[in-house]
Every structure is written in C-alpha cells, then in structure tokens.
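Much of what follows relies on a compact textual record of a protein's fold. A complete example follows; check for yourself that the lines match position by position.
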Amino acid sequence: LSQGRCLEQRPRMGDDHADQEDAFPSPMVAAARAPVADPPGLMISGSGWLRPEDAFFAFEDEEANAEQAQRNAGMRDMLRQRRQGLEAQPEAAAPEEFMSVKAASGGTSSSSRPAMGGPWNADGGLAPPVASSEERPPWFVHRPHLENTVLRLHEELLDFAEFMGHTKDELQARKRWVKTIAATCRSLWPDCQVKVFGSFSTGLSLPNGDVDVAVLDVAERPGQAMKMLADRLLSNGEVSWLEIIESAKVPVCKLRQQVSGLRADVVFNQPDGIETSKFIKDRCKEYPQMKPLLIFFKYFLLQRGMHETYTGGMGSYLLCNVVLHFMQRHPSKKNPRHYAATSLGHLLFDFLKYYGADFQFDTKGICVTDGGYTFNKAERGWRGGNRRAGDGVRLCLESPLGQGFNDLGGPCFRMGVLKNLFSHALQCLSFLFVTRAGPDASLLCPMLLDPKHPVIAGRHSLMAAQPVALPGMQRSSSQLEAEGTLDSDDAGSEKEAGDDDGASAAGGVSASGGGGVGGDCKGGGGAPPGKKRRRR
C-alpha cells in the first residue's frame, strides 16, 4: 500500500506519459488503486488501525497528551515572564572570579596598572572588586608605586613580621613574668639557674606566644619540682591557671599569669631547649630571610590548628629546620647575582612549590648539617614516619644536635595534610601572580583562613588581667599596685626587691645565646657597687 502511495505521488513527466500509464497500469499500481476491504474486527481511526477494545486507551492517551501540552505551555509562559523580568532589571555585577582580591580603596573600581595587556582592562577584562578601608588587614600598607606583584609580596611579608613583633610594653611584661618565676624558683632552690629558650629568645614568637623557661640544677624530680613551684605561685596569687603534664616526653608545667594573662611553659633539668634555641638563632643570623618567613608560616599553621607536634602538626623547632633546609637548597645561595635579585616573594613561592609539589617525601630524608642535603631513606634502612600516618606522606628530618640519628619529623603524622595546605597556598599565590593583582589588594589574605582571627583583631589587647585561681586567695603585689590599693612606698619596696632578686648571681634569668629579641632577658642590672641589696 505504501509503495502504491509513493507511485501515486510521483511527479508526472507529461500528458502522454500519464495517458500511457492510465491505459496500461502496472500490476503494482493496479493493486494499489483497487479498493481494500476492512479486515474483520478492525476499524479505521484517524491515528491508525485500532481494535474496538483499544479505542478507549487511545482516548486516554489523547487526554494525557492534552494535559501535558497545557503544562508545557504554562511552563513556557513562566519562563518567558522571568526572562522579561530579568531583562527589565539593571545589569548585575559580574560574579567574582576564583580567589579574586578585594580592592582596598572604596568608591570605584580602578587599578594603577596600565589598561592594555592586563586582566584589569576597561575593555571587557576582569575588574578588581572594591572594598572599603575597614576591610584592609591591619598590617597592610598601600604602595601604588610598586607595580611588581612579587615586590609587593616582599614588602607585605616584612610588614606582617613587624606587625607580629612584640612591642616594648609586651617585652617588658614578659621579662617581668620571667623574673617572677625566677624569684619563686630561687626561693625554693637557691642554687638553681633559670634560663629562657624557645621562640621568645630567638625573636620568632607570635603575639600570643608563651615563654619557655628552663630551671636547671634542681635536686628534686621534675614532677615534684613542678608541684612545689605551682603551690608557691598559687599561694602568692601570681597565677590564674596552671596545668602539670608529667606523662609527656618532657614533663612541663604550664602557667598563666594573673596580672597580664601571659603564659609560660616551665621545664626542669632539661638543657636541650637552650641548645636548640642557640642553633636556630645562629641560623637566622646566617639566613636573615628566615625570620619573616617563619613568622608568617607559624601564623599560617596556627589558624589551621597544625602548629602543635602532639596533634600531628609541625611544631616551631621542626618548622625552623624545614625552612632552614629550603634556604640551604635554594639556587640563589650558589649565585650571587641570583641572590641579589631574589626577594621574599620569590622565596615564599618557591617554598610552597618545594614542599607542596616537588619534594619526594616517600624516598628522601632531610639533613640540615654540613650545609644541608637530602639522603635516600632506603639506603639507610629506615622507613621512618609515625604509625598513625599510615601509608601517607611521611617527613624524615635528622636532628642537627645530639648523638645518633633522631628523627624530628616522626611525630608529624599529618604531613599529608600539610603538603596539601602548601599546595593550595601555591595555587592561590600563582593566581595572584598570573592575574597581576592590583596594588590595593593584600597578597597574604588569600592564603589565610580568617584575617580577623583573634590574634590579628585583638593584636594590641591580648594582655589582660585574669580572675583569681581560687576564691579568697590573695592577689599579687603587681595587681594591687595596678589597682592603686598598694601604697607607693610599699610598691617601691616590692619593685626594688624584685629587681635585686632578678640580679642574683646564682639564679639570674638569662636567655640562651644572647642577642635578639629576649636575648638580654636578664633579671635587672643589680644594685650599684657598695650598696647593700634589699631583699624581701
């Protein structure tokens, strides 16, 4: 039948041909033109051949199709109305690109870079977002004259390190806190020596950092000595909180001063910290670029909770050795011309690339002695790492001090997380370099979780008086003097007695190594010659 319809619809070539076709029809055409009887039991419908019992279903399908068509028409009307409404609204701002940096100037979107060739063009290019001056980080200094992004990163790292450095008042408060601990220790053990070590003595301490104090030449066991010191400080009203950790590898007594809220970690008969502080201080003198990098990375890890060794993070001493190894291996060390052209911005980028992408943690170990080098862990027969790290990334770093092999990176069982953090920061910094971020933007904020972290937002209000440790206990003389309830004569006597106690030859407070921030942290200059010392 279909073939017959096709033949009927075939165009005719002429009347003679048509007459010939009508006069002598082919068998197929004749069969097509012949009337066809309806098959028994079937009926002809507009939609095809149907049996009587299927007619009802065909009617249902027609109703469903009509309903669906009505719904489709309604949806098209809704979309048309929404499109017309969007066209009537004013054009919205373009969505912010990945890791775009907010401009520090308010009002209009502008940049000091040339209009041609950069991503901040006025010819349809990416425009920098606008931010008010209140959104600038407190360390940020606007430098529109510097168009080089790497140089601006160099300057911002220096600004950040200066912002995080201790003020004179903070230094004096920490020295007084150390003198209080030293005087209390000498009252219990007259022949002891009190020394400051750690980040405060090396000048790498954050504003909220504690003071590490080592008490040497004490006859009692560390646990008993810590309890005696805690009891005496509590009875004098000097501390508002304390914690004694005897189960640690190095037993420590954690204290918090009531007057200022400053914290201190006190260890007994442990001179190792003094040696490590001297080593780091000497290396910082050899590589001056280490200090701003270390201060930034300490805060970088602090915000992410990765700054403590006992939680699997990277402690201060381990971080110092990691940065030291990077500085020893950097190409600028071997080429004076390259060294002169290398800024802190280059070093920060190279550090993130070295530990976030290039370093082979599975096969290489680190040694920072003899100029620094890497070694094959398999050749030494050491797989290393921490069992809690599983089969993940493991850091192996040989201790530069002491006899034998001591792995400083073993406790850092979350090195895989740290590697991912460095890699992510590398991507953020790469984006800023490629897009040539404008001078109104902070280049460090994209790598920080929260620029309004309490350490930043409350930078100059971190020291505050604390409540008494136990109700009814006496308060320290310094607190009474601050409140004005102590007579000036008594206050002068207390202060002079404290100064004299801090200058005793047997137990003077000193920072290991000397020099640097806290390096001269000694307990006062003592009484003039010939003048009798007054003791409390």
The CA atoms of residues 267 and 331 lie 40 Å apart.
